# Entry
Amino acid sequence: MTCARPLVVIVLATALFAAADPVRADDVDLDLKQLAKCIDDSGAVLYAAHWCPYCKKQLKVFGKYAKYLPYVECYDGPKKEGMNRTCKRAEVTSFPTWHYPDGRVVTGVQDPEEIAQASGCL
# Structure
């Protein structure tokens, strides 16, 4: 049974880490709920697609607070039906795509600190 004890410790440590709301980034504690709300208030926009694994990863970073993000779904139906007008007008070409208040456009999964800085929330 000696082998099982380290596994239990690893599982418990992982569960505790995953349950924590604040994200530690370069000695800055980010409150994910407040950050998501600030990003929404800033005018930043997250363009994503329901079928996109990277978009799911981006939302997962915010956990249960992803619902506060300024999320725009780019596909109203199956992928084969194509991108909707909103995202075409925004010239979205890959996912996820962040449009920031200063006009910058960044694609790919971003960490919370990067989003906070780009949206003026940090």
Q: What stands out?
A: Strands lie at 23-25, 28-30, 45-48, 71-73, 97-99, 105-107. The mean pLDDT is 83.
